[in-house]
Amino acid sequence: MNRPATAAGTGRRRPWQRRLAIGAGIFVSLCILGVLALLLTLTYEWGQPADAEGRACCWEENATPEWTAGMLGLRVPETATDLRAGLHSNVQYDVALLTFTVSTAEADRFLQPLLREGAQMARNRHPEEPGYTRSDGFSHLGLPEPETFTEGMRITSVCPHEAKTPESDALGLCADIHAHEFQPGTTRVYIWAGSDAPLEKPPT
After folding, report:
1. Which chain regions cross the lipid bilayer (predicted)?
2. For FRET with 195, which of 6, 8, 109, 184 sits at 20 to 30 Å CA-CA?
């Protein structure tokens, strides 16, 4: 006895229906990926401060030059003028800034005990472009970043105990130092000291 014939197309998709279902699935997947990408982008941007806010962020208000010099273990020359300082804190590292102007001879007397025996400060052979700034740099103190200067600029890096001097032993952090003779006989000293561990905060 013959079984009744199954109705044409019952239980089986036609080719165009299969292609439509596949296309719809791909479209939905792309939409989901697009939404996820947008959410990730917005989340990242919301977590990043705007440029102006980023430059103003994370600076301690009471990091005076006197306090900063003491925290770094440095004795600033008594003849120094235009002293400026800052302390920047973030989740990755803390940075202490100290800068002042003295005669070039006084700058040399300040710097020499911090240098290893026989070490000489180098010239800035790879300057940054004028207008260069950084979120933890001297532009926060109203000064051009020292990395932008070449003429009259000397640079070095020092760490505690590298030189056999009381000044080197007193130094509390490794530091990048720029000495800029911006006019004959007058030098501005820039000290940038970073620490992976949180630095002491100034008193409020």
Report:
1. 20-42
2. 109
